[in-house]
Amino acid sequence: MKDNLDRPHTPAAMARMAETLSLDLGVEYDARIVSRRQLDRAVERCNDCADPDGCAVWLDDHAGGAQEAPNLCPNKALFDHMRDGW
Ligand code: SF4
User: Fold this and answer.
1) Atom 4 (ligand 1): residue with closest C-alpha?
2) What is the DSSP annotation of 15-53?
3) Is-above-0.85 flag for pTM?
């Protein structure tokens, strides 16, 4: 079994986005739907995001959940991949 400590630290916005999309990054990682490299790059993109304020507004507007990440999210493709990966 993989150790969750092996996963990179997830930025708060990325964790909140995953939660809004009903995705568990730990489960996705353990199931090898996403690799460590993919998560590392997603963390970098989130930390460097050009529109964190827009993200916060979108997350507030979708507090009840959403089917897909917004187009403004540079990690949308990865979130879509996780959603469709099962
Ligand atoms: S929109 Fe930006 S800040 Fe929000 S989760 Fe995506 S990458 Fe992170």
Assistant:
1) 55
2) HHHHHHTT--HHHHHHTTSS-HHHHHHHHHHHHT-S-HH
3) yes
